[in-house]
Design brief:
This protein is an alpha/beta fold and 398 residues long. The chain has 13 helices and 14 strands. The strands form four sheets. A six-stranded parallel sheet has the order 6-4-1-7-8-9, sandwiched between helices. The chain has a three-stranded mixed sheet with strand order 2-3-5. Strands 13-12-14 form a three-stranded mixed sheet. Helix 10 links the parallel strand 12 and strand 13. It is globular, with a radius of gyration of 21 Å. The two termini are 34 Å apart.
Length: 398
């Protein structure tokens, strides 16, 4: 079961390279803490999942690279080729020099439709190289122009053309202090569109990853490369296969194996635009938790605390809400590692903050002309606000 990765914009392409590099290095790591046969099965599973046939002895990443300008794509292709271990297929990239900065509307309404056929043809070629397609992994930022606007457009097209395949979007949440002046507009438009077309959103907050680099890794001068490598490590530890206990490694159709859908209530929603200042979540209630344990002594690890009913919403039994995967095959150089993937209330506060900031800008009509001139109307903003308020209310009421 193979996954086709779609790398969108500068952020998506830079992270995508680090993810493939982490996956390849891990699969070829000699310290697997398992038998040679098991390590070979692990390596074969990873290769089938993320890499296609070799070109001159070098595996090719199952990926399509998309950006409005060729610079980042060329840098990413060259960096992978220079490694000598794996590379991207030269046909699996799309670039266009002209663009309109960080404007979500341009990426979604102009650039996407204009190049829809070219992008989808590249994706189709990668899909045709898969013996069995599991789904798509879409890496993107939500704050800028290409990764957010074009990313939402591409995801929508994937849903239309490959409705039975899993679509998982890994999205980078912007710094709270701001990256671009219209990042809150871009973010609410992106998340609301992805909510309708994606099967799962895997969220990484820049502020949280930055804190990991500073406090846990003690990096003094933190670069985007440092942040991207942390992200790649986290993603790799989640997406690498787990041992089935029957002599082989395997993946589920859904790489995360849990239900991510939360349906908004039909009534009792707060009035649009009335952003509550006291929506504090004092206890992080979950819908689902997945713990992935890798390495030494994993089968004796105690995960009983995750089965506590107090962690979950009252309408779900822990047996349905909690899953654990274990494998003795270590991840990269670490003797033991653990990863937690959680569908919980943890995103309520950052989502509420972005919606509130975007609403304040919208109420004063700030920068709206940058969107209306490319076909995004005020009603589109209102639809996004309404949907995200429903999502916030749903999670608050868990």
């Amino acid at each position: 079961m193979s996954i086709v990765t779609v790398q969108l914009g500068q952020c998506g392409n830079q992270i995508g390279f680090e993810v493939f590099d982490a996956l390849f290095n891990d699969s070829h790591c000699p310290r697997g803490l398992c038998s040679k046969r098991e390590n070979e099965a692990y390596q074969a599973s990873c290769k089938e999942r993320f890499f296609s046939e070799e070109e001159n002895g070098v595996p090719l990443a199952r990926a399509v690279l998309v950006d409005m300008e060729p610079k980042v794509i060329n840098q990413t292709l060259s960096k992978a080729a220079r490694s000598g271990r794996w590379k991207y297929g030269q046909h699996s990239c799309f670039c266009q020099k002209q663009g309109s900065g960080n404007n979500w509307a341009y990426g979604y309404s102009v650039h996407g439709p204009r190049h829809e056929e070219s992008i989808m043809n590249l994706i189709r070629k990668e899909v045709e190289k898969c013996d069995s397609l599991s789904g798509f992994f879409i890496i993107m930022s939500i704050a800028g122009g290409t990764g957010s606007g074009l990313g939402a457009f591409v995801t929508q097209n994937l849903q239309d053309q490959y409705s039975s395949a899993l679509k998982m979007n890994q999205i980078i949440w912007p710094y709270g202090t701001g990256e671009v002046i219209v990042q809150n507009y871009n973010s609410i438009l992106t998340v609301s569109h992805l909510y309708r077309s994606s099967d799962a959103l895997l969220v990484h907050e820049n502020d949280a990853v930055h804190k990991i680099c500073a406090q846990l890794m003690n990096i003094k001068q933190i670069s985007f490369c440092d942040i991207n490598q942390v992200l790649a490590h986290q993603l790799g530890s989640v997406f690498q296969p787990t041992y089935s206990g029957e002599g082989s490694f395997h993946y589920r159709r859904n790489p995360l194996g849990i239900d991510w859908q939360v349906r908004p209530p039909v009534s009792g929603l707060p009035p649009l635009g009335e952003m509550s200042g006291n929506r504090e979540i004092h206890f992080n209630t979950s819908i689902a938790n997945l713990v992935i344990l890798r390495g030494k002594d994993v089968h004796s690890a105690d995960v009983g605390a995750f089965k506590d009913p107090a962690l979950y919403t009252s309408w779900l039994e822990p047996v349905h809400a909690f899953n654990v995967w274990k494998t003795q095959r270590a991840f990269r150089k670490y003797e033991k590692s653990a990863a937690l993937v959680s569908n919980s209330q943890s995103l309520v506060k950052p989502l509420d903050m972005i919606v509130g900031k975007a609403w304040n800008m919208f109420a004063s009509r700030a920068y709206l002309h940058q969107y209306t001139k490319f076909g995004i109307e005020e009603e589109d903003f209102l639809d996004s606000f309404t949907l995200l308020e429903q999502v916030i209310a749903s999670y608050c009421n868990l």
